[in-house]
Amino acid sequence: MSQQKTTEAAYDVVVVGSGAAGMTAALTAAYRGLSVVLIEKSRSFGGSTARSGGGVWIPNNPVLVREGVPDSPDLARVYLKSVVGDRVPQAKQDAFLDNGPRMMTYLSGRTPHLEFVYDRGYSDYHPELPGGLAQGRSIEPAIVDGRLLGDDLALINQPTMSGPKGIAFTVSDFHDLNMIARTWKGKRTAMKVGAKAVANKLRGRLPLSLGKALVARLWLALRDAGVPVWLNTPLTELLTEDGAVVGVRAERDGAPIVLRARRGVVLAAGGFEHNLEMRKQFFAEPVSTDWTVGATENVGDGIRAGEEVGAALDLMDDAWWGPSVRNPDGPPFFCLAERSQPGAIMVNDAGERFTNESASYVDVVHTMYERNASGIGHVPAHFIMDQRFRDRYLFLGTFPKQPIPQKYFDAGIIKKADTLAELAAQIGVPADALTATVQRFNGFVAAGRDEDFHRGESAYDRYYGDPTVTPNPCLAPIDKGPFYAVEMVPGDLGTKGGLVTDEHSRVLRADGAPIAGLYAAGNNSAAVMGNSYAGAGATIGPAMVFGYIAANHLADLDQAQA
Length: 562
Known about the structure:
562 residues; alpha+beta; 8-stranded mixed β-sheet; 32% helix; globular
């Protein structure tokens, strides 16, 4: 049997990966006058970005300026430094902050597709730190009509959860919908979303929101710019000459191809969340590929390719964590609002609370793993709620008072009992300890102060709290049976570690020297956020910015260097 002939092509820039980082890099390169091709392993585009909430955290961006948000470069620099510390070089932090507004202005000035709206009130994740903003810096893509994509609409990487066609809501809508049984604003938002869904159906519109809206908008811009995007084209290795990266080997629809890059290659192929071997190599136990909502194709291809040509790695033991509930039928449920709403707590195998449940999701899972090492089980943890909580708030996609799907009980993920003692027996924790923990928590409610973990004191905690509950919107008693215990695992949006890059997005060797011709952005690279998380969209915002930085650095290269 004869081998397939390898075809060759040449471009100024080859981009690997079609998430926010890769599409931004390719779009910027095209606008800078470079010939560029984007290759994507999957048969769909958008990667983990398409499966996300689509938030973008970029301080001082034009949307914030337009909305009158009291941000400033100095304020943002102080805040990011407070969050990240010295874990990431200052030059890289500065590059993100300085280029973020430029990227937004540059791209939006060249395409009408990149339209964003402000998520007013969605607090930075650490607003109490110097430079933090309680009103938030997060933006998201405006809802877009999927009909604009034509047949390409079917190629978007599917989100982990999706509703009926015609229904789309923003992050702000989601915030209000969580209070559908508690506030008039929640009810009005539900009616607004429902009315729009009816209108969309009557007019044949196919609205896209959140992460799907972002990748759809970037795709439309790429299509207008004439950038070729090759799906079903996995990277197999990087091509090098004299220590420099000069292109890639790939397979296009199963056939080998060589793509030469006259200026360089941008790796934006995501993290390694679905690679169990790598998770076991770098993460603390227990680990599982079933707990992530990242794109299933993300198995570390780009990271390994960079490592093979001498790249250094960093932050490989971390991820964009979040407490999650396993789903017997598919990807887990990433818990955002549930942990802030009053009337529920998280406990360990000793039946004791161990954290501020409402804190940033990354921080909560960090605590789960840190405390798990003590010998007392914290992974998984137990989310304890009562019937009052179930009657008031959305949970696992079900409306208040709506029965929780039986599949969760059948799989042992959720337990239910008439008393806390009976519930403790079902989940294997000491009954007296769980009862005492709940009693102590209930004692904090009247005064509105969590003396153990200060839940509800941060503006971020309160964002998803219940405004009808006073004096603390995150605190309510757990005393109305039946009671529920929900297994809470350390899920993630993707991994955080990857190739070490500098302020120009160049991939670095262990000695700090750049690898000529090789750049990285997004979860393919070690995060500018270090081990923390500044605010909603602090994954996608930097991904786009460093994709933009990479393309600009390539465009500015002297041709003799390229």
